[in-house]
Design goal:
This protein is of the alpha/beta class. The chain has a domain at about 340-485: Isoleucyl-tRNA Synthetase, Domain 1 (Orthogonal Bundle). It contains 17 helices and 18 strands. The strands form five sheets. It has a six-stranded parallel β-sheet with strand order 3-2-1-14-15-9, sandwiched between helices. It has a four-stranded antiparallel β-sheet with strand order 5-4-8-10. The protein has a three-stranded antiparallel β-sheet with strand order 11-13-12. Helix 12 crosses helix 13 (about 340-370). The longest helix has 30 residues, at about 340-370. It is elongated and about 90 Å long.
């Protein structure tokens, strides 16, 4: 197979347990991984945890634990979340693994050999929480504390010996790279932010620290720890067995097709990362997409604010697929969004129970009572039948284009629209009034079953558990789901038995 697709989530920082923001990034990445898989791509989907740095060291000290043991425990909660969210990831990487150490040391050695790194002294503002350096104009004074304007995190003045990466040297090459690859950064607003930042002037970047010890040591100077972001970003390579560039996995999947990240870490991925790679003569990724935050109320979630939304709690109360559906449909991808109990329950009742669930139940129950549980032999499709069936094939190319531009909302809106049309078709054709026209009755049922099959395939990347339940009644298993089969209006074989279907979504009764 020559169609490869490599997608990554950010690797999560396990200084505290996962929250809804982590779940959101992972679910979005899983959507793209699943749709590419059913489109016939060889998909490599990576997630994991970033386990080094001063923030982790302090959190471990506060918990009175060895840093690695602390990371083992917290990282496990992120790995468990991957399972809870039903992610289809191929790998889960930890930056405390030996394979990662080798990759980071190799990249450092290349940069040092190419004289892209030099030893000097750093003095400036640093946020332990963000593991980021800030200039004077990027901070503000609030209640006597120095705060990062972008993240709201406290910064502290740091002065120490440090290795520096010649980031300033890469200002013009980066601007040329952005110009030559106009869709490297999406959405457009994020691209504009990055270009503006780079045009304002890049300063050399401190890429090592001496004030703490929890991290990967600089190979040529063990007194220094490699800056956590140079360490962390390299995970995208180490998961592909870099530095073995002849490795099949590396050759197949690098450069990455899509780094999916939160907007707060855009600068690291869209400025520092391509600069490191270009300096080391490694191709940068094809795209970095900076999505918005899932807010708690009107604020970004953070442990310090105590406003964490727990995805496990919502899944326990409402189910996984409803949460996935809500995040993919109700959040305008690229912008900030939040979770509202009322909107979530409305989604479950109107879209999932009334629209999808009701369509499946009505059609299959009617089929059982009037034809027996088997695919009916259809007569000639009339104009109404062909209009609704062909609407899928007519839009597959457009759907593919929009997915490739990460336009999730277009995709979901199309699916929802097809659900409404399918329900309307079944109502308008009224097969219950066609008892004296058995051929027409069977054709309506056949078309309706095909609509359920097509819609369920489109829903698979969004709500995989539920859509699989529906596809299983047609004896279609997960490995048999093919995106291009949606264009086939006669996929279902007449006379083949189908299975009964339980209620897909229970409506939520509002007792207020």
């Amino acid at each position: 197979m020559n169609k490869n697709f490599y997608i990554t989530t950010p690797i999560y920082y396990p200084s505290a347990k996962p929250h809804m923001g982590h779940a959101y990034s992972s679910i979005i990445a899983d959507f793209f991984a699943r749709i590419k898989k059913i489109q016939g791509y060889n998909v490599f989907f990576l997630t994991g945890t970033d386990e080094h740095g001063q923030k982790i060291q302090r959190a471990a000290e506060k918990a009175n634990k060895d840093p690695l043991k602390f990371c083992d425990e917290i990282s496990k909660t992120f790995k468990d979340l991957s399972s809870t969210l039903n992610l289809s990831n191929n790998d889960f990487i930890r930056t405390t693994e030996n394979r990662h150490f080798k990759s980071v040391e190799n990249l450092w050695n290349i940069l040092e050999k190419k004289k892209e790194i030099y030893l000097s002294k750093y003095s400036g503002w640093y946020s332990v929480s963000d593991e980021a350096f800030y200039t004077e104009d990027e901070i503000e004074n609030i209640n006597g504390k120095k705060i990062s304007k972008s993240s709201g995190s406290t910064v502290e003045w740091v002065e120490e010996e440090s290795f520096f990466f010649k980031l300033s040297k890469w200002q013009e090459p980066l601007l040329k790279f952005y110009s030559d690859n106009p869709k490297f950064i999406l959405p457009e607003t994020r691209k504009n932010e990055v270009v503006s930042f780079v045009k304002s002037g890049l300063k050399d970047l401190s890429v090592s620290r001496k004030s703490f010890s929890w991290g990967i040591k600089v190979p040529s100077n063990k007194d220094h720890v490699i800056y956590v972001w140079l360490d962390a970003l390299t995970n995208y390579l180490s998961a592909l067995n870099y530095p073995n560039e002849n490795d099949e996995k590396f050759k197949e999947f690098w450069p990455a097709d899509l780094h999916l990240i939160g907007k707060d870490i855009l600068r690291f991925h869209a400025v520092y990362w391509p600069a490191f790679l270009l300096a080391a003569d490694i191709k940068p990724p094809k795209r970095v997409y900076g999505h918005g935050w899932i807010l708690s109320g009107d604020e970004k979630m953070s442990k310090s604010k105590g406003n964490i939304l727990d995805p496990i709690e919502i899944i326990n109360n409402y189910g996984l697929d409803p949460l996935r559906y809500y995040l993919l449909k109700e959040v305008s991808f690229g912008n900030d969004g939040n979770i509202s109990k009322d909107k979530l329950e409305s989604c479950i009742n109107s879209d999932l129970a009334n629209n999808y669930g009701n369509l499946c139940q009505r059609v299959i129950t009617f089929c059982e009572k009037n034809i027996g549980l088997e695919i009916p032999k259809f007569d000639t499709f009339n104009e109404d039948d062909l209009s609704i069936l062909n609407n899928f094939d007519n839009n597959l190319k457009k759907l593919d284009q929009e997915v490739n531009n990460q336009n999730i909302n277009f995709y979901v809106e199309f699916v929802v629209d097809q659900l409404f049309k399918a329900n309307k078709y079944f109502n308008d054709q009224a097969p219950w009034g066609k008892k004296d026209e058995p051929d027409r009755l069977k054709t309506i049922v056949y078309v309706s079953l095909e609509l359920i099959r097509k819609i369920s395939i489109l829903l698979y990347p969004i709500i995989p558990n539920t859509s699989l339940k529906v596809l299983n009644i047609f004896s279609i298993n997960e490995n048999e789901i093919k995106f291009d089969s949606i264009s086939n209006n006669e996929y279902l074989r007449p006379k083949k038995k189908i299975l009964k279907l339980d209620i897909l979504f229970k409506k939520i009764e509002n007792n207020d």
